[in-house]
Amino acid sequence: MKAARIVKPKEPLQIEDLPVPRPRGKQVLVRVLASGVCHSDLHLWEGGYAGPRDMFMRVEDRGVRFPLTPGHEVAGIVEEVGDEVVNTGKGEKVLVYPWIGDGACPACTVGEENLCDRPRSLGIFQDGGYAEYILVPSERYLIKIDGQEPEQVASLACSGLTAYTALKNSSIRAQEFLVIVGAGGLGLIGVQIARAIAGSTIAVIDLDDKRLEEARRLGADHIINSSRSDPVKEVKDLTNGLGADAVIDFVNSSKTVAKDLDMLRKRGRLVLVGLFGGSTELNLALMPLRAYRIIGSYTGKYADLVELVALARRGMIRSVIGKRFRLEEVNDALTQLKEGKIMGRAVLNP
Q1: Structure pTM?
Q2: Fewest CB atoms less than 10 Å from the CB: which of 39, 64, 89, 230?
Q3: Transmembrane residues, as ranges (predicted)?
């Protein structure tokens, strides 16, 4: 089978011919129809994340090993199953839940494998979906998607699930004011999810007018271009000087977080999602005086992905597909994503 592999960080991915895996026991072999191109893949390709004081946090220090086939947003067709698989058959269309844990840590025991102490996530710690086939450890990581478009559903496994979990972590309610920072793939699906499950007033902040207009089309009540106006003042003006009840930052950089804190109202919740990186300074006295809550939010659990797929099946959310690429065009896809040339999600079709 053909697979696009990161052989060494910061070098072009290589298309390699690898043996097609043979499933054993509980394993399931899935033929990939669509694999989303995620910003997390960019961090893998670059070898790490920006940390505080110009420190670079290497992914290899977190247990990532190269060469690696990335890709954790995968939808496809079951090609073959191991002899212990009982509820999944050849030819079924499935979405793959990639956030696999060791099954033994405290998070795993309560169904939060995405927060496992020793993660084994597909496309990060083991080979993923930038390939013609992917080997899934168990059928319990599959969600059946008969009647749904694989390209539409694939990105739910990361961008959709991450946004869904962030909305839940924000505890946003009807009549409250929600700010979404970043109108990329995460932000755009986040607007739809917020509209579907929260009923709050939604403001979206970004630097790009086209993305902001798309956010408005998808349900944002207010859009703010932070390159032309002060987003803190805009949010305060829209909330009678009080500030936002919750801010979800899908960028999470030093610059955005500083603004996030300034636009929060008393008792406000700040949910940090993006992996842009950097550091920020906190006014420690204000934290208790204003009763802020700062929450880190990372992907989501299997049960939430099942709920999200159900929302998509009912037509309440729909992924914004920016561009489609062949597997051989993977380096172009990653480069365009890095340069901000893709609105919504990019998808590989192996």
Answers
A1: 0.93
A2: 89
A3: 177-198
